[in-house]
Design a protein that fits this description.
The chain is an alpha/beta fold. The protein has helices at 7-19, 35-48, 68-73, 78-87, 98-101, 120-123, 127-142, 154-166, 196-217, 223-234; strands spanning 2-4, 24-29, 53-58, 92-94, 146-150, 172-176, 240-248, 264-271, 274-281. The protein binds pantoate.
C-alpha cells in the first residue's frame, strides 16, 4: 500500500494502474477511521476484485467546516489510519495537505441547489458547497470507476449522487449501510470526542428513531405524532440538545405530513460541542 501526498504522484499511480487494466474503487474519508469506514473499504475491495485498485483519501477538508472550532478539534490520526487501511486491503491512500488541495487564490465552487438546502444544509451554511467541491476535486484526481459513501450521512450521499448525475461525473456511486456500535449508536469519527457521560446519552439518538419507527409499525401515520414520539425519547438524555428531527421524503428531503414506508427519519443533536447525526428509513 502506498501513501501519497501529492496530486501529481497520485495521478501517475492511477495512470500506471489503468495501463494494467485495473479498475479504481474509491473511498473518500476525513480519516479517524472506524468500523464504519472499514466496512466501506471491505465493500471497495469486493467491488474492485483481486486485480482492481482500492484507493482511500484522508483529507480533513477545511472548506466543509462552518465552525472553525469543529475543524480544529477534528481528530487527525494518519498513522493509525494507515494501519487500518493496509489491513483492509487498500492499495493507495491519498493524503494531501490543505495547500496541495487549495491554491491560495482558489475561487471555484460546486453548489448543489436543492437537496443541500434543508437539514444539515440549513444548520451548517456552506457545508455541502465544501463537500461537493472537494468530492469533485477528489474524483478528478483519483478518477475512480466507483466511489463509496455511507448511508449514515444520508443527505451527503444524496447530494453527491445528484452532483454526479447533474455534472456527468463518470463514476458510479455506491451507498453502504450504516455500521452501529452494539448499543445502536451510529459509528462516527466524532464519537471519540464524547465524554463517557455523553457517550451514554448518545445512544438515545438511535433509540428515538427506532421508537418512532416502532410507532409507525404500530399504525401511526401522522408525521407530527411520530416526531413527538421520537422527541420524547430524546428528552431522556438530559444533556442532549436537538438540532433537527424530521420525517422527510427520501427523494426530496422535504418534510412529509403522512408517513409511508421508505420515508427518512433524520436527526442531528448536540452533546456539548459534539454534533451527531443519524437517520432511519421508515419500515
Ligand atoms: O463524509 C466525509 O468524511 C466527508 O464529507 C467527505 C465525503 C470525505 C468529503 O470531505
Amino acid at each position: 500500500m502506498k501513501i501519497i501526498h501529492s496530486i501529481k504522484q497520485t495521478r501517475e499511480f492511477i495512470r500506471q494502474s489503468r495501463k494494467k487494466g485495473a479498475s479504481i474503487v474509491f473511498v473518500p474519508t476525513m480519516g479517524a477511521l472506524h468500523e464504519g469506514h472499514l466496512s466501506l473499504l471491505a465493500r471497495a475491495r469486493q467491488l474492485a476484485g483481486p486485480r482492481g485498485i482500492v484507493a482511500a483519501s484522508i483529507f480533513v477538508n477545511p472548506t466543509q467546516f462552518n465552525d472553525p472550532k469543529d475543524l480544529a478539534k477534528y481528530p487527525r490520526t494518519l498513522s493509525a489510519d494507515a494501519v487500518l487501511c493496509r489491513r483492509a486491503g487498500a492499495d493507495l491512500i491519498f493524503a494531501p495537505s490543505a495547500n496541495e488541495m487549495y491554491a491560495s487564490d482558489f475561487s471555484t465552487w460546486v453548489n448543489e441547489g436543492f437537496l443541500s438546502l434543508p437539514l444539515c444544509g440549513a444548520s451548517r451554511p456552506g457545508h455541502f458547497r465544501g463537500v461537493c467541491t472537494v468530492v469533485l476535486k477528489l474524483f478528478n484526481i483519483v478518477q475512480p470507476d466507483i466511489a463509496i459513501f455511507g448511508q449514515k450521512d444520508a443527505q451527503q450521499a444524496m447530494v453527491i449522487q445528484r452532483m454526479t448525475r447533474d455534472l456527468n461525473c463518470p463514476v458510479r456511486i455506491v451507498i453502504a449501510p450504516t455500521v452501529r456500535e452494539k448499543d445502536g449508536l451510529a459509528m462516527s469519527s466524532r464519537n471519540r470526542r464524547l465524554s463517557s457521560k455523553q457517550r451514554t446519552e448518545a445512544v438515545f439518538l438511535n433509540r428515538a428513531l427506532q421508537s418512532a419507527n416502532d410507532a409507525f409499525r404500530a399504525g401511526i401515520r401522522s408525521s407530527a405524532e411520530l416526531i413527538r414520539n421520537a422527541k420524547t425519547v430524546l428528552r431522556q438524555a438530559s444533556h442532549m440538545r436537538p438540532d433537527y428531527l424530521e420525517l422527510v421524503s427520501s427523494t426530496t428531503l422535504r418534510p412529509v405530513k403522512k408517513a409511508s414506508k421508505g420515508d427518512l427519519l433524520v436527526a442531528a443533536v448536540f452533546l456539548g460541542s459534539v454534533r451527531l447525526i443519524d437517520n432511519r428509513r421508515i419500515d
